[in-house]
Write a structure and sequence with these properties.
This protein is of the alpha/beta class. The strands form two sheets. A nine-stranded mixed sheet has the order 14-13-12-11-7-10-9-8-15. A six-stranded parallel sheet has the order 3-2-1-4-5-6, with helices on both faces. The N terminus is likely disordered. InterPro entries: Gfo/Idh/MocA-like_OxRdtase_N, Gfo/Idh/MocA_domain, GFO_IDH_MocA-like_dom, NAD(P)-bd_dom_sf. It comes from Paenibacillus psychroresistens. GO terms for molecular function: nucleotide binding; oxidoreductase activity. This is Gfo/Idh/MocA family oxidoreductase.
């Protein structure tokens, strides 16, 4: 029988992989009120030991398997390359560990569903690590939309681009490892649009630049995501373009603009509301969304409550990603209904 956690106990985390994103996530977990990082694993013991020393983590392992055998760990965070998410999430679930897995959850919706089912069977929680959804300003944005201040939503636009194209050994540019801009950054505006609309898209159309210099992955993608009620999101994402991360919600009476929509920054927590030509800055007290993500995940486990975002949400997001990539590769409009 699995132990029932007392509310005073902290969730004990293990990290599977010494990825660069750990620079943001591990300190955030350590700063949380609900968790502590107990161990980190790498396939290279020296690499794990260096990470453990850097982040002041008590235990370092030279294999991923060892961390799953550690009975002092309640949950794992998986920042591995995309093609490894499914295997290690399922292994973690079978070992009785709760799973917070980096986005995108899997390489396709079918894999994502396998992960959801495996975690449900093992009676453990599974969450996709989309930290931007834990940003408290989203609640304020939804309040403004619900109030009718900007009128009825007519369109959305999201953009997330950066230029790291010279680093050709990067896992983002390896097709068999789940590389590509849609997987890496296009998933953000897709996820946010679904959250804002509160419904699932009905179709997707996309055009992409597949680079022969980067193992044929999509280095840039532009697309149209259709929702019901004749509303759509246009988006672009890329890994060989100037940096930007914006999102706009256009209504009949006004609009909401996020100049830094996805990556957290204390200097860019605010957002802009424009109504009838009048602009105002909505002030938001910055809270690290990585820490909020860790706390929300931990409380769901410690309190035995539903996750803030159900595991199935990741499957639904992957369905849209699948449609975008299919459209871009086959040059067709892909229906989702």
């Amino acid at each position: 029988m699995k132990e029932v956690f007392r509310l005073t106990r902290k969730l004990r985390w293990g990290v599977i992989g010494a990825a660069g994103i750990n620079q943001s996530v591990i300190p955030a977990i350590q700063a949380s009120s609900t968790g502590s990082v107990t161990a980190i694993a790498s396939r290279n013991l020296e690499k794990a030991q260096k990470a453990a020393e850097k982040f002041n983590i008590p235990t370092a392992y030279g294999s991923y398997e060892e961390i799953l055998l550690d009975d002092q760990i309640d949950a794992v965070y998986i920042p591995l390359p995309n093609h490894l998410h499914k295997d290690w999430a399922i292994r973690a679930a079978q070992a009785g560990k709760h799973v917070l897995c980096e986005k995108p959850l899997a390489l396709n919706a079918e894999e994502a569903q396998e992960m959801v089912d495996a975690c449900a069977k093992a009676n453990v929680k599974l969450a996709e690590a989309f930290m931007h959804r834990h940003n408290p300003r989203l609640e304020r944005i939804k309040e403004i939309i619900a109030s009718g201040e900007i009128g009825s939503i007519r369109a959305l636009h999201g953009a997330f681009t950066f230029n790291n194209a010279q680093d050709k050994n990067n896992v983002r540019y390896q097709a068999n490892m789940g590389g590509g801009s849609v997987y890496d950054v296009g998933c953000y505006p897709i996820s946010l649009a679904r959250l804002i609309m509160g419904s699932e898209p009905t179709a997707a159309t996309a055009h992409a630049f597949f680079s022969t210099e980067h193992d044929g992955v999509d280095m840039m993608c532009s697309g149209l995501i259709e929702f019901s009620d004749q509303v759509a999101m246009t988006f672009d994402c890329g890994m060989w373009a100037d940096f930007r991360q914006t999102f706009e919600i256009l209504g009949t009476e006004g609009r909401i603009e996020l100049s830094q929509a996805f990556l957290p920054s204390p200097d860019a927590a605010d957002f802009t509301v424009i109504v009838k030509g009048e602009r105002r800055e909505e002030k938001v007290v910055f809270q690290n969304p990585y820490t909020l993500q860790a706390d929300n995940f931990a409380r769901a486990i410690l309190d035995d409550q539903p996750l803030l975002y159900a595991s199935q949400d990741a499957v639904l997001n992957m369905r849209v990603i699948d449609a975008v990539l299919k459209s871009a590769k086959e040059k067709v409009r892909v229906s989702l209904v």
